[in-house]
Amino acid sequence: MSTVAEHSHDDHDHHHHAPSGIKRWLYTTNHKDIGTLYLWFAFIMFLTGGAMAMVIRAELFQPGLQIVDPNFFNQMTTVHGLIMVFGAVMPAFTGLANWLVPMMIGAPDMALPRMNNWSFWILPFAFLILLSSLFLEGGGPNFGWTFYAPLSTTYSNDSTALFVFSVHIMGISSIMGAINVIVTIFNMRAPGMNWMKMPLFVWTWLITAFLLIAVMPVLAGVVTMLLTDKFFGTSFFDAAGGGDPVLFQHVFWFFGHPEVYIMILPAFGIISQIVPTFSRKPLFGYASMVYATASIALLSFVVWAHHMFTTGMPVATELFFMFATMLISVPTGVKVFNWVATMWRGSITFEIPMMFAIAFIVLFTLGGFSGLMLAITPVDFQYHDTYFVVAHFHYVLVTGAIFSIMAAVYYWLPKWTGKMFDITLAKWHFWCSLISVNLLFFPMHFVGLAGMPRRIPDYALQFADFNKWISIGGFAFGLSQLIFLALLIKACKKEGEPVSDRVWEGAEGLEWEQLPSPAPYHTFETPPVVK
Amino acid sequence: MAETTPSNGKLVIKLVGIVIGMFGFGFALVPLYDVFCEVTGINGKTRDTASSYEAVIVDESRLVTVEFITRTNTGMPWEFGTETRRVKVHPGEVAQVDFYAKNPTIRNIIGQAVPSVSPGEAATYLNKTECFCFNNQPLAAGEEVIMPMIFYVDPQLPKDITFFTLQYTFYDVTEAAATTVAMNRIGE
Ligand code: HEM
Ligand SMILES: [Cu+2]
After folding, report:
1. Exposure of A288 by Cβ count < 10 A (0-12 exposed, 13-18 middle, 19+ buried)?
2. How far is B132 from B98, CA to CA, in rounded Å?
3. Most buried one in A51, A104, A420, B164, CB count within 10 A?
4. Does residue B156 surpass a pLDDT of 90?
5. Which of B11, B21, B29 sits opposite A183 (nearest CB)?
6. Domain boundaries, chain B
7. Most B CBs within 10 Å: which of A153, A167, A174, A213, as the mutation test of the B interface?
8. What is the predicted ipTM?
9. Which residues of A have a catalytic role annotated?
10. Which of the following CATH numbers is that of domain B44-180: 1.10.3720.10, 2.60.370.10, 2.60.40.10, 2.60.120.1440?
11. Which of A200-204, A392-396, A521-525 has the weakest average pLDDT?
């Protein structure tokens, strides 16, 4: 770019005078700008996916079909899932990585700034394509976010091509993002920042990035097979042509299970940053946290068939996947233990990020427990494809991944803007979210155990009361997020009290100790000294 | 940090290598799965070629019940069935079961029968010396056929399996078959 010429000391093209307006955001290669873009994009997607959830909950408020027709209902569950996974949670984590990884390891920027720009800017197109397919004749994808064949092949409509295309773009975007994170962490650490000094957020993101480059290509492969099955006459998943629909599930879940860890490992990193700060104690068991994260990542490749217990696998296979799945709860338990041990006898204060972190620890663990129940093969035959599974993954994803993202935003926002956010609004946001999210997801356990299937627009009368409360919880949770929106808008307008460089009394790490608040546009152009 | 730039390139190439490798791996899962299933029979698929019947010793000491289920896929208008719901055979003994199919429509249809055995473990012990499922089955409008299926159960069949089910599903493959024919013509 044009600024290269003005440059003296290194080979990254920085904008010494940031261009203003839309161009700044379109052409930016600055990790902080790109981080902000990712985070706002994720938030907009969160609201979009949330609006779809409101449609789902409105339809399920009462038994019977009243608001939308079943085909549209199915499109809502499908696109809600896709948007939340690929549009909200994953980009939010990438945004946090962009903002924080360079500051935490003392690097001036991400290693591949131009690729960084690309990996963000293709994302809005992916989702535009996906969302526009909803308006086509026949509607958008309606086969669930897991797009099982033959629902997505024989029984889907032509908009499936758009779905495949958008998934490809999302995949390319996350692969580029992951490569960038890995190269940055490998090559750009400040002198003295050796592996076992890296903050846990950096560690968990490094491992997540490896998971991403390992499984996003498999996702790309499986959607490609689906595309050729549907449009070009191959029969990967078509029994009539010698294929096997069960194969689809194997390939999909080979991607799918590591994918769920892609959505939780960075959360583990965030919580491991926040808990020590507000407990005023160093993290308990740093090394065991690193090893636990790595073993979770490795194990996540050998448990995929726990999503397929009811597909008629031989007993030995069922047992293998049952035990392998249960094994994962060991390193996960190590983590929860370490967080609790960090808080033990600490001088804890309950600032907003800490409140979200504690809610995370309790509620994520609850989701882990329902996961363990699902991992028991014989009982999964009853729970599979019921609301119990829905309850499980919303506890780990909403009160897990999303709460951790909110905790992270509250924790680092003052560092980003230089101003304390509106604490009153934040408290309202926390308590409203906490209460409503449990009203929303906890009763799902019961209706699930009682046999209410997932992904249906109508249900038997005995589930009516529970569903009414679930829907009320859903609307309340949705509205609570508008408080967050208001708070974020105020924060971006730089309203609020100025904060100190360290912001939080107990905060440790390069970004708190060596950078002013707000963090300037360019940081660590000369590498910091790491003790 | 000028010195880091060259190694960035190398690392990126390695990482892109992993990405391409894993894309390939996704596709490699397809043949791997087939081989795995053929060895273990886990998806209940039987062999799609005829077995020979040579030097097979009949195990008179036990009887195995083989049950037959017939169905047509959604949208396949054929009538398809068998009079024989189940047979009892000694492992190693040859048996024949006749299936019938009728195309009641006014158009020609090509069908393909796909077998599936449950429990899947039994699939590898089911040997068919003749089966209509090896090839596709064209039936003109209104045409009817009787299709024999000749099989024997491998005497190696584990002792705990005393009963298994063989299900045939008929699929309408007229379109797919037409494109293959067309493709072959283009090839000629
Ligand atoms: C102790 C750890 C965990 C165990 C033992 C576990 C176990 C399971 C099992 C057995 C299922 C399949 C249930 C069924 O379909 O019948 C499942 C579903 C699911 N899990 Fe977990 N899980 C764990 C943690 C997580 C985490 C951390 C996440 C994500 C952050 C997650 C996300 C999901 C999702 C999204 C599904 C549903 C997928 C679908 O069918 O749409 N799980 N889990
Ligand atoms: Cu899983």
Report:
1. middle
2. 10
3. A104
4. no
5. B11
6. 12-41, 44-180
7. A213
8. 0.87
9. 80, 109, 145, 173-174, 257, 259, 261, 272, 306-307, 332, 335, 454
10. 2.60.370.10
11. A521-525
